[in-house]
Amino acid sequence: MITLRPLLAIAACLAVSLGVLAPDIASAAGGDRDDDRGREHDDDDREPSGRVMSLDEAMAQAEKRYRARAVHGEEKRKGDRIIYRIRLLDKDGRVFEVSIDAGSGRDR
Predict the structure, then answer these.
(1) From residue 66, how far is each of 47, 75, 96 by CA, in Å?
(2) pLDDT exceeding 70 applies to what percent of the chain?
(3) CA distances from 93 to 9, 35, 106 (A)
(4) Is 41 a residue whose pLDDT tops 50?
(5) Per-residue confidence at 18, pLDDT binned at 50, 70, 90?
(6) Cβ(51)–Cβ(105) under 8 Å?
(7) Order of strands across the sheet with 95-101?
(8) What is the reported pTM?
(9) Per-residue pLDDT band at 32 (split at 50, 70, 90)
(10) How far apart are CA 87 and CA 51, in angstroms?
(11) Distance of alpha carbon 19 from alpha carbon 95, whole angstroms
(12) What is the pLDDT of residue 45?
């Protein structure tokens, strides 16, 4: 009798593997990031220091906040705002996604 748990673990590993490789493929092909040179950001939603957090900082914050491993992160633009979408893998093998505003550091 085949149990469902090993199949779910294999599916989660496959999803994580594809998520980890996808950014390298996208960046090699030029990616889909918007060019932000010369654009102003809304000062009302920035960190108190006035700067915008990096994707690496947002991923580290998400790992700490959710006690999970960040396996993929990408930058999305919503008007003048930068939103980081971060895919996490928890200790039970579940993959989930969170969005973090780069200016405020808050979850969206």
Answers:
(1) 21, 19, 10
(2) 54
(3) 7, 35, 25
(4) no
(5) low
(6) no
(7) 69-78, 81-89, 95-101
(8) 0.55
(9) very low
(10) 24
(11) 10
(12) 53
Tell me if 83 sits within 8 A of 34, measured CB to CB: no
CA of residue 101 relative to chain centroid, distance: 11
Distance CA 76, CA 1 (A): 44
- Give 50's contacts (C-beta < 8 A, 6+ positions apart): 43
Residue recorded with tokens 């690496």: 56
Measured in whole angstroms, how far is the alpha carbon of residue 34 from the centre of its chain? 16
Q: What is the mean pLDDT of residues 89-100?
A: 96
* Residues 71, 95 contacting (CB under 8 angstroms): yes
Question: Residue 39 gets which letter from DSSP?
Answer: P
pLDDT for res 51: 75
DSSP 10: H
What type of residue is 36? Answer: D
Tokens of 49: 């220091």
